Amino acid sequence: MVFAKNISIIVFSKQSVMTGYQDYLIVLSPPESIISSVKKLKDFSFGKIGDYESRYSKAHITVQPWPRKKPVWIEPLIPKLVRDLQSMPTAILDINGFSFFDQQETATIYAKLTSTPLTKIWFKTLRRFFSNENSEPHITIARNLPKETFKELWPYFKNLQWNEQFKIEKLTFLRREMIGHDKIYKVFKEIPFNHRLDFYDFTTYKLKVPVLLNKVNTQQISLF
User: Fold this and answer.
1) Superfamily of domain covering 20-208
2) Per residue in 169-192, pLDDT tens?
3) Which of 25, 42, 154, 169 could join 174 via S-S bond, C-beta 3.0 to 4.6 A?
4) Is 118 helix (H, G, I), strand (E, B) or coil?
């Protein structure tokens, strides 16, 4: 009887973990060449300042964090999102050097992404499917550095040149358990964008549509 009780306890514990709350992180995944370059920069930073937050995180562009969610809430949303993202092309982005976020007591060094009307409209279209704020897309190198540590590391990045174009071909759902010792995000779902759509045609059209609508509205108003 004791043995049977122990089994039931183990089964219940396993089910509670599986059906409990989890942290989700929705990101854009760059190609392996960018991931490799970011890893080298993280390793370089470690050699200069020692360990730091985000040292082991894989290169990504954050779309939205979804902390403390149940899988039964998230998983039903996936099929619709898969269909919705087929309305968007792969993105063409450019890295252009480095910058940092000043967070008063800490600072975060990141790789800058060139912002153009075309990239802005692509990200704006993507955000329609989520509820996040209009944050600046970037690729984090070293997060939440104490100010003294930041002052030590930033001179190495300040004038470092990195100009590279790359494609974003998929949106990635990362997930980690809130209960237990495994706090590392793992890939839960990858959703590709529509490779048949052209990034430049798509974004240029999106930019023109409001102008055309405004012209139509102006003409209609002038008739009355």
Assistant:
1) Cyclic phosphodiesterase (3.90.1140.10)
2) 999 999 988 776 667 889 999 999
3) 25
4) helix
